[in-house]
Amino acid sequence: MFGDLKRFDNGIGSGFDWFRPWLDEIFQEGAADIRSVPRGSFPMINVGRTDDAVRVYVLAAGLAQDDLDISVQDNVLTLRGRRDALPGEHEGDRKRPCFRRERFDGEFVRAISLPEGIDVERAEARCHDGVFEIHLPKREELKPRRIDIQAA
Amino acid sequence: MNEVTRHEAQANVPARERRSRAMRPPVDIYEENDALFVVADMPGVTREGLNVEVDGNLLSIEGEIRIDMPEGLTATYAEAQAQRYERRFTLSHEIDTAAIEARLENGVLHLRLPRKERHRSRRIEIKAA
């Protein structure tokens, strides 16, 4: 399924834990997935799974319900959107002094490979406080089936 | 002096009480109209989980990420690897720390740090001779 997580290339970031992934990079051959993005990109994405679904959490601060475009095609989940970091900045002639600009500003696209067997018709998404939760249920017949052990 | 004692106190705290790992939220800082503005990305933080504090001239912003996750969820890929955000700034003496305003919207924290009255830029009137 998500077996080959190494395909998600993580470039050297400015976080405190840059050292370990940097070492990983040195000791493995690097052939990153063509759709991968450097670490620390906007938005941050976490993916998890339960027995009956895959859940994708998109941490996109500043975005509300209509600001993110979510689509699925051929087992690829694509997120598209635009984030204006400082709305109103371009108004007026006077440019205000900016001491620091770290937040992402502009359009973004993220693509995530999904495992086989997602029931796209039943997919749902909701958002709150800049976090989008995407619920991707697996097709009924593909859920893991527990096998009961009968007494001999 | 205060910095030293605070650091020592934390070293004696047992491991399980020590603060958990935190992410550093990206910020934009700009100045306009006699005030400094700090904008920080803290997606997943609600008003209840947000803590903005000023201690002397140290401004700290902390936020707990509140996301409901189902039981039995296994993580397969995570770019956000901590449950909270934390960042600190040293403020200069010209900031009126008692008048700091904070607003949280869609996971973005907006802080307005006004400068003290007497530190505001003042135009000097030129009187006719």
UniProtKB/TrEMBL annotation, chain B:
Domain SHSP residue range list: 18-129
Matches recorded under InterPro entries: A-crystallin/Hsp20_dom (IPR002068), HSP20-like_chaperone (IPR008978), Small_HSP (IPR031107)
One Pfam family in the UniProt entry: HSP20
Ranges for region Disordered: 1-25
Signal peptide positions (record): none
Domain of life per record: Bacteria
Family according to the record: Belongs to the small heat shock protein (HSP20) family.
This protein's name: Hsp20/alpha crystallin family protein
Organism: Billgrantia desiderata
